[in-house]
């Protein structure tokens, strides 16, 4: 499927995006030269720890950066427009209508003193010419589409009368109200328990297929997107450090940071102790010289602390920015993936072969 995606039209293109934030101590370099394409009908996951720049990049696409943000350079190309240069009036015709957003916390995303139905119909009135009766009927349709039972009655209820999972379904209904072609999901399951999380992911997947949406899925957890993503961008310290198809990232990871993220995922098949990533992310007011992950990387070489690695191409769809892939890197460093991760990948491959067989 991923190979087919490469041939599809690009619906959104981010080119060399650089974003800083004015802070008391200086300029925080939050996004440092991020580039990626979103193809029609695909799910692109952007994965990384808090502070890696993934959510900032997405807020720039939606024109909702904080007042102290500065877009230093770069382009966000959508439908012939550069979204870094459009006005707020232009964004009113894009945000919520052509590009929808599912927020991380449904409780804070919803107005606690406004009925659910009113919050959905407001979006319909903003982006369509529906009458009050038409908007109500459409809102109920949307509630039913996202799995809200007894929608006509619940249309009149308030957010506190819904569970966390049902509130997130309402947020999804609001995101779909404008009939967007791009859906951005910003950590949409973080506040939910595991069982509800699985149902919400399944719902997003189904909606994407039914509506042929292009989806950008932001998360700190690679496990969340294992069965959703067509392609994955791994971000660290404001940069994409590895990009590839989901299969390549999960079965052939090449960057030590990707290794660390995968190794820290719980494995229900074994009783392995979770591996933590040592150290802390760098201070982005003073980004480190060389590879930003070097100080936390047990495989780091001298050059990692001196010079930033370029992208090394592993396939037509898979690249990673790590000196371990350089031809002159030692053979030991090039193959020494953590044993816990190597064993896990082998198990996943065998399970996949068994399921396919």
What does this entry look like structurally?
By secondary structure, the protein is of the alpha/beta class. It is 34% helix and 22% strand. It has 13 helices and twelve strands. It has helices spanning 2-5, 54-62, 88-92, 106-109, 116-127, 132-145, 151-154, 164-176, 194-211, 246-251, 256-263, 331-335, 339-356; strands at residues 10-23, 26-39, 43-47, 69-78, 81-82, 99-102, 182-186, 214-219, 231-236, 239-245, 312-313, 319-320. The strands form two sheets. Strands 6-7-8-3-9-10-12-11 form an eight-stranded mixed sheet. Helix 6 packs across helix 8 and helix 8 runs parallel beside helix 9. It is globular, with a radius of gyration of 21 Å. Residues 1-7 have low confidence and may be disordered.
Largest sheet: 8 strands, mixed
Q: DSSP strand (E) fraction?
A: 15-25%
Helical residues, percent: 25-40%
Order of strands, widest sheet: 6-7-8-3-9-10-12-11
Oligomer: single chain
C-alpha geometry = globular
CA-atom Rg in angstroms: 21 Å
Please give the alpha-carbon distance between the first and last residues. 19 Å
Overall average pLDDT? 89
Number of strands: 12
Question: Helix count?
Answer: 13
């Amino acid at each position: 499927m991923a190979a087919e995606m490469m041939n599809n039209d690009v619906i959104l293109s981010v080119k060399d995006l650089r974003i800083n934030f004015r802070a008391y101590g200086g300029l925080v370099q939050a996004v440092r030269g991020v580039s990626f394409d979103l193809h029609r009908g695909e799910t692109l996951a952007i994965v990384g720890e808090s502070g890696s720049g993934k959510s900032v990049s997405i807020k720039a696409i939606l024109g909702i950066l904080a007042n102290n943000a500065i877009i230093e350079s770069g382009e966000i190309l959508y439908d012939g427009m550069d979204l870094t240069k459009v006005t707020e009036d232009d964004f009113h015709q894009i945000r919520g209508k052509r590009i929808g957003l599912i927020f991380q916390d449904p409780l804070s995303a919803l107005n606690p003193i406004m009925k659910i139905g009113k919050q959905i119909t407001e979006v319909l009135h903003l982006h369509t010419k529906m009458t009050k009766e038409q908007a109500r009927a459409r809102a109920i349709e949307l509630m039913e589409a996202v799995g809200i039972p007894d929608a006509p009655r619940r249309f009149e209820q308030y957010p506190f009368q819904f569970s966390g999972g049902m509130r997130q379904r309402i947020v999804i209904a609001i995101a779909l109200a404008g009939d967007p072609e791009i859906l951005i999901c910003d950590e949409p399951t973080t506040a939910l328990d595991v069982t509800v999380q699985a149902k919400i992911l399944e719902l997003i997947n189904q909606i994407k297929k039914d509506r042929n949406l292009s989806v950008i899925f932001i998360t700190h957890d690679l496990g969340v997107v294992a069965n959703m993503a067509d392609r994955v961008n791994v971000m660290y310290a404001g940069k994409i450090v590895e990009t590839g198809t989901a299969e390549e990232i999960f079965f052939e990871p090449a960057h030590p940071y990707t290794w660390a993220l995968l190794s820290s995922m719980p494995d229900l098949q074994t009783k392995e102790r979770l591996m933590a990533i040592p150290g802390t992310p760098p201070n982005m007011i003073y980004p480190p010289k060389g590879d930003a992950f070097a100080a936390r990387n047990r495989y780091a070489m001298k050059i990692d602390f001196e010079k930033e690695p370029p992208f090394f191409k592993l396939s037509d769809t898979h690249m990673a920015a790590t000196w371990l892939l350089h031809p002159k890197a030692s053979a030991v460093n090039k193959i020494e993936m953590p044993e816990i991760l190597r064993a896990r990948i082998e198990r996943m491959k065998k399970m996949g072969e068994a399921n396919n067989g």
